[in-house]
Every structure is written in C-alpha cells, then in structure tokens.
C-alpha cells in the first residue's frame, strides 16, 4: 500500500521532478521503510517490482542532480544546500547499488541493469565533483597564512621571521561537517566500486596542497653539492633559520593535520588512508628532513658550523615524538628513518667539531705574548665557543657520547656525566696551553698576572653561563683555589722583593737605615715601573688585588718610615726620595696599579716632584722640635 501511494503521488505531480528538489526526504520516503538487502528481493515477483521502483525513483532524483558540463549555470553543491538532501541523495545511491547487485545476480542482460549503470555513473560523477569541491575548501583551511611569503628570498627580515613564527593554532582546523561529508562521499564511492576515482582525486589535491605549502615555506630538494656551494654564501644562515621555522610548521601543522584528515575520511580502510598519507607527504617530508643531513655532510670545517648543526639537531630532537607518531606507518617509515639519519649525522658532526676544537688548541703554537697580561685571544674564543654551546643543554648531553679517554676523572672533573667530562677536559687543555704561553713573558710576575686574568676569565664565564650547571660547583671551587694560588704567586714574585728591603731588626745603625731605604726606593720604583702597563681585567678582582698588596706593604713601610724619618731626613740625598715615597704616596701609587694605561701613573709619580724640598726640611725641623719636647716631658 505504501508503494502504491507513492506511485500515485508521483503520477499526480510529474512536473515537480523537473524542479530543483527541495525536500528529497519526503519524496523518497519509501526508502526509509523498505530494506534493500538481498533478502528483500528473495521473492521473485515482489523483489522485481521493488527493484524497478528503486531504479525509477533513483532516476527521478539522480537525473535532476546530473552535471551538465556545457551549462554556464553555477555549480550548486547538494551538501552546501542541505545536509538532509545530501543524506537522501546518498541513500538513493545506496539503494541503486543494491538494486544493481540484485540484477547482476538475476539477469545480466536486463535493460534495467543498463539504466542503473547509467544512473550510477551520473551519481558518481556528481559525487566526484562534490568531493573535489569540499576537498578544495578544506585545502584552504589547511594552509597557514604565514607561509604565503614566498621561498625564493635570500634573506629574511625581522617581519618575515615574525610571520614564520606561527603556532599550530594559527591554522584553522578543517570543519568537522566538511570532514563528515567527505567521509560519507568516500564511503559511498568505495562501496559502489568507484574507490579508485575517489582516491586518485584525493591524492592529487592533497599532494598539491602539501607541496605548495612546503614550497612557500622554502622547502625544496637540495643535493649535498648544492649545499657545499651555498654554505659559504653570506646569507646561508637565513636558509637555516627558515628551515628551523618551516620544520615546526610542517610537523605540527601540515603533516599532523594531513594525517588527521585522511584518518577521518577513510575510516573504512587502513590501507587506503596509509596510501593517501604516503602519497601526499612522503616526498616533501623526505626533502624536509634531508636538509640537515646535507649540512652535516658539508665540507666546511665542523667547528665553524657547530651552532648551526646544534640548532638543527635540537629542532629534530624536540619534534621527535611527533615525527614518530605521525610517520608511524610502514609506508612512510622512510621519513622517520631520514629524520633519524639526519639526527645521527648531526650528532657525529658536532662530536667531530669538538675534536677539531681540542686539536686547534693543541696546535696553537703562537709565541706572541699579551704584553699587559690580559686575556689571551685563544682563551676568549674558546670560552665564548663553549659558553654558547652550553646553552643547548639536554641536546648537547645527547650528542656527546662517553669516551674511554674521559672516563678517568681528575680533581678538575668531578661530574661523571659525559658532557661534563668532555667540556672540563677541553677547558683543562686550554689551561695547559695558557700555562705554556705564560712562560713566554719576560717577567715571572707578569706570567702569574697573565694566569690570574685568564683563569679568572674562565671561572667567570662558567659562573655566568649554563656551563656552571654542566661543570658543577665543585669544579668552580677547585679553580677558585687555583686562582688564589696564582694571585699569591704574583704578589710574592712582585712585592716580596720590596718588603725584603726593610731591615728585620728595627735597632739598626743610621747608615744601615739609609741603605735599606735607598734599596727599598729603587726596588719599588723598579717593580712599580714595570707594572705601569699591566692590567687586571676584572674590576672587582683588580680592587681586591690592590687592597691585598697595600695591606701587606704599606703598614710595614709606614712603621719603618715613622721610626726612621728623622735619621733619613738628615741625609739630603734621601730627602727627595722621602717626598716621593711617603706612606701616603705609596698607598696612592698602589691604588693606581693596573689602570690599563701608563699615563695616569707617570703623571701621579711626577706630580710629587713639584713639592719644594724646603717644605720637607721644615717638616723635619718641626718633627724634631716636637720629639724633643716629648723627651723632656
């Protein structure tokens, strides 16, 4: 009765079929009440009738949505108009497919089968166009806006870098409705035997989407020979910076969402979705992850590219879990292998760079001295190098492997971690080299001052950078002790000679007093004169050393000076020396040590010579009168 009622409805309104369907569900409502399973067609007469009705009503619906390639009318999507109408359209195709299966099993020569095949082709052509349209819209959702800045540039300004620094949230997630429609179309086409057409279309669109996005990110295939030519170019660092931004976008956005899209659309077949994902991403991903390997293999000295390689290593290492997850399927395992290969090659190159660094320290045979005892250029370059390297933290720890030559710890190498041992060893090699260079100085005191400056520089570099976490507090404590030993040795070799000029026995003859004073004066002048151009680089260290020298020298001299001032003043040859080297002037001279320029010291020394000798004699007479009064009392 339901079928008869539907027939009457159709016969009464034949013109409505020539209009655009507005509510196909009501006009094809019998499909919801009739089950199109093979059991429905088991009765020969009733099944044949139901089959004919299915094809007839499929024809009325499908022909109205047939695509006219020659029409200039804008294409109207069923899925954009109404989800309900789209569902009816899909149900109509499903019913038609079941009817065709019935006809194939009963009458291969049936005219109805020929009609059904024609209708199915109309339906599949329509679904293919719908699939293309929705997939193209989804393509725009998956393309990050910031990758549209072009890839042919040779330099990147700050604004472009800012645009490249996008997060995953900057790329729109494909509409779940769009994905649901794509999945419905794909399932229908595959179940009707048109899976190949659907998959080919999907692969073409998605591969072009990924390839274009990667191109705009600046990712393109390079060979090792190309990299060797490019790596010495002025702006090659910009290529690396671009890659570091691109790999973040590619892994976290493009590849991640490509896998998401395929997994949601082709739910019926793991093999299909793996094949689609492989087709769209494999080539581009291999090009992306081959770039770091080419850098690692380049012929430029590794020590010159170590920070570039550490940046690349760090980036892949940080993304490794996501890379493993996204490319977990066997079909794209080569991408994961390429990323891992690049990681290993970069690690090898970084280790080679550290060996080259150590070797360059050993081979530094220059005998040129730092005349003022300041920081040696080798020390500056090596410590700057190591300080920058320490910023890579855990990545550096992963790169540096344990080695038998570093397993035996010394007092300088407290931490057992390979990276701590390795860096402590390099610094130890550097200190040995500096110790050798210290011996090239003409004065032993200057050699020790050179070691003070350079060891203090190393300790402060460690303390101010991440090296302090790598080497540890005990390393710094041990080297602080060594620094104090160098300071003590410098003071002994410089100023002990001055102190030794003072008589041990205060009750000495006037002649002996005057002889001691003349020797002290000449020795002080000699020692001080040599050091007018010597420097202590660090201000706090400089003040501490000057205070230490003054503390050891001035009080002892002041006592000698006060005790024997009258005796010395009786000798006119000592008068000028007494003026120049009063305890106050000695303290002043010592306070002006290590200025970095000798002009200041010479002017202050010369300034004292302008004092008239008569004034000093008057002071001596006054002191003599006062001492006489004291004795009388």
Automatic annotation (TrEMBL):
Record flagged with keyword Nucleus: no
Coiled coil ranges: none
Domain Exocyst complex subunit Exo70 C-terminal, residue spans: 241-592
SUPFAM superfamilies: Cullin repeat-like
UniProt keyword annotation of Transport present: yes
Domain of life: Eukaryota
Gene3D superfamilies with a match to the protein in the record: Exocyst complex component Exo70
A Gene Ontology term for the protein's cellular component: exocyst
One Gene Ontology biological process: exocytosis
GO terms for MF: phosphatidylinositol-4,5-bisphosphate binding
Keywords: Exocytosis, Protein transport, Transport
Entry's family note: Belongs to the EXO70 family.
Role played: Component of the exocyst complex.
The protein's name: Exocyst subunit Exo70 family protein
Protein source organism: Cynara cardunculus var. scolymus (Globe artichoke)
